[in-house]
Amino acid sequence: MEKFVIQGGVPLSGTFVPAGNKNGALPILAAALLTDEEVVIRNVPRISDVQAQIELIADLGARAEWIGDNEVAIRADGVAKTDLDRRLSERIRASFLLAGPLLARFGRAHMPPPGGDVIGRRRLDPHLDAFKALGATIEHDRDILLTAPRGLTACDFLMDEPSVMATENALMAAALTPGSTIIRNAASEPHVQDLARMLVKMGAQIDGIGSNVMTVHGVDRLGGCDHRVAPDHIEIGSFMALAGVTGGELTIKDTYPEDLRMVRLVFARLGLETDMRGNDLFVPGGQKLVITNDAGGYQPKVEDGPWPAFPADLTSIALALATQSEGSVIIHEKMFENRLFFTDKLQLMGAAITICDPHRALVVGSRRLRGERVESPDIRAGMAMLIAALCAEGTTEIGNIRQIDRGYERIDERLRALGARIERVEDGDRIHAH
Ligand SMILES: CC(=O)N[C@H]1[C@@H](OP(=O)(O)OP(=O)(O)OC[C@H]2O[C@@H](n3ccc(=O)[nH]c3=O)[C@H](O)[C@@H]2O)O[C@H](CO)[C@@H](O)[C@@H]1O
Ligand SMILES: C=C(OP(=O)(O)O)C(=O)O
């Protein structure tokens, strides 16, 4: 096991190029199973979740390999089975994204339970409802067996919640189902939009990309394509907060400004001002972070929600940022039951955080943090601890950093390039982590 050892107190400054979107690359890789032609995918983040997805696809019999530092080529003309490897499936949540393509192309998918962040129950019902609406038969024990021996049928269905991955599974299945499928109450996150754009390149026609009603005009055969994954707005938000709490001046290159509007609005409310310079995002250095109250001087809140609301994966990062902002704010994690259960680690470092209920935390900011030994339970909690450690006094050790490596490419190397004092070391002396 490895850990990070961080010396806090150094401003993070310089120019940063964000990686491709983790949650965009994972469905885009899965979509390559929809065709027997070659698919080339660029700007793929080199993270462990992507590696697991590539291994899952290769295990099915497809050719799937890195052809460059961040480029992957997949040719699924040799798929020999539709049963996912159990050990690989339980490593990532995104393994379940192989269900839609396998069901649509081969009429069958045997899905072991997926893995992923343990931040809530993470129901799969919206996926199964979509497959059922498309005409699949479902046998659900611990594993899920999906079959459609006579193929899928275009339909008009309403999701009971705008599930991101269920929308992506439905999009992929419908793209290879002749006829017009309407997906209502669909998710519209940037990665859902990016997947839809790729499916259009492969030969599907999709109306309503970016809205909550999409009509997929599916076909009986999809072609290969060459697709570049959009930049990761969650990583960009993470580095905005890293610069903000350390007082650094940071330029983040080649963003998609439309994907950053809500992040910038909420972070500005927490006192972090940023400017767009074309597609580059500029974080001025030395900002004094002050929380803006609601009109009338009332206490503000930050709450997550389906796009275009504030993204759930930045809730932990917003909470860490808020510990450094003068004032107080309620952080309301509405979508996941357990995401906030990491805040005890920040409290141990000196943050003034009160858990009001499982979904809400009151943060009273501008407390000086001190280095501690902590352990990360999930990807974004790990990033929150990195944010806290980089602005704390003294030394912090963060254990279980494989969680951070799941979602952030070469994070220590890229932080050092901005001036951070961070080392990746063997966690020989098991830290008495909190
Ligand atoms: C691999 C991948 O892409 N993972 C992302 C994907 O997970 P995933 O697709 O699994 O997440 P879902 O969008 O299905 O739902 C996330 C959670 O929010 C709840 N929910 C959802 C919609 C709603 O209106 N109300 C509500 O409470 C769900 O019950 C679930 O508990 O989307 C999540 C929400 O953006 C992100 O945190 C994950 O990083
Ligand atoms: C929750 C996340 O990932 P996953 O759904 O893959 O667990 C995340 O990317 O923050």
First-to-last CA distance: 16 Å
- In terms of DSSP E residues, the strand content is 15-25%
Mean pLDDT: 97
Name of the CATH first level of the largest domain: Alpha Beta
Total strands: the figure is: 23
The helix tally amounts to 14
CATH H-level name of the largest domain... which superfamily?
Enolpyruvate transferase domain
**Overall form:** globular
Name the hetero compounds present. Answer: uridine-diphosphate-N-acetylglucosamine, phosphoenolpyruvate
CATH topology type of the largest domain: UDP-n-acetylglucosamine1-carboxyvinyl-transferase, Chain
CATH architecture of the largest domain: Alpha-beta prism
Secondary-structure-derived class: alpha+beta
Low-confidence stretches: none
- Describe the oligomeric state of these chains in a short phrase: single chain
For the biggest β-sheet, the strand order reads: 21-22-1-23
The description of the largest β-sheet is:
4 strands, mixed
Summarize the structure.
This is UDP-N-acetylglucosamine 1-carboxyvinyltransferase. This protein is an alpha+beta fold and 434 residues long. It has 14 helices and 23 strands.
